[in-house]
Design brief:
This protein is α+β, with helices and mostly antiparallel strands. Helix content is 36%, strand content 20%. It starts with 8 loop residues before the first helix and ends with a helix.
Amino acid sequence: MPDTLRINGQRLWHSLMELAQIGATEKGGVKRLALTDLDRQGRDLVVQWGRDAGMSVTVDKIGNVFMRRAGRNNDLAPIVTGSHVDTQPTGGKFDGNYGVLAGLEVVRTLNDRGIVTEAPIEVAFWTNEEGSRFVPVMMGSGVFCGAFSLEAAYAARDVDGKSVREELERIGYLGTEEPGQHPIGAYFETHIEQGPVLEDADKVIGVVPAVMGLSWYDCTVSGMEAHAGPTPMGLRRDALQVATTIMQEVVAIANRYPPYGRGTVGMVQVFPNSRNVIPGQVKFSIDLRNVNDELLNTMHEEMLAFVAKTRSETGLGIEVERVSYYPPCLFHPDCVNAVRAATDKLGYPVMDVVSGAGHDAIYAARVAPSGMIFVPCKDGISHNEIEDAKPAHLEAGCNVLLHAMLERAQVVE
């Protein structure tokens, strides 16, 4: 395989812009929620492009789509790349979509050059990665790897009461293949970083060795509502003031475990939320993350210990419930090294970047060697209609994907 082999960056860009027209918003973003009519249109377009490139198409029972370019030995497990085509309600053009269309561009490039691979190459897109219409997030890849059952996914409903199974059937993507029975020899996912690290360091490619684990909690602090004027400070049972001490500790805990400690309170509900009433109850979210499971557990224990201490000192009721947990994901050294070798060969400025966001590659890594490639996005902004990326960076990431996949699929000389 010639080291000079490159994808067609202009064709990749045009495909991204054409797909972005389906669900386009006035602010330049995309709203294409999972299993809606717009999602069906987006899926149909990508599938048609795959068929135009000579690929066969398989759909499983949760709506995951696999588009295959045959290899010389089709008994080998395919080398797979992909991501998702559903978006947030105020999503951008690149999150997920880039990973799918980068895979398609790899196939188009191989077709242009008449290159045959020993193993088949596949492009996948997974159902309901975003989780913005149906919970849980990363649904299709989660069912695929056995993280939760097909029946549980089918039963999930949106705010209008429509179920996943009903909507899959309605849009024509209720497939017949059992999730998880589709073989994967290795999996690569190309993605915009969704953070500011690459842009800040002026690097083009991020080699992703791991994804942070996360623990999500709901915390409720219960005090007593009282009049803000007549009630002396020393006699108050102010739920908000106690809650804020816990919120500050969440941040302090994260700062104690750099560089990958993260602590966030992103949702707060204050009752009764009146200007001259001392808050009687506060509910808020806690988000703890780290790339090391031992450190993440230490952060978890420190947070619970602080809550217990605060409960004892204040006498207020404080309850914490862990509502979600994803362990850190370490990607396979062979796939990480394939990305690193491809980047070195192509000469792009590069650095390692640990992902702080969830991706389908996390679940793919449970069933096959997996790795990820990051490219910068403007100002680190994603899940936003102004999400943007430079065509040259998207082209570079796709070139790295091409060479990494060919290392695993093996070119037939």
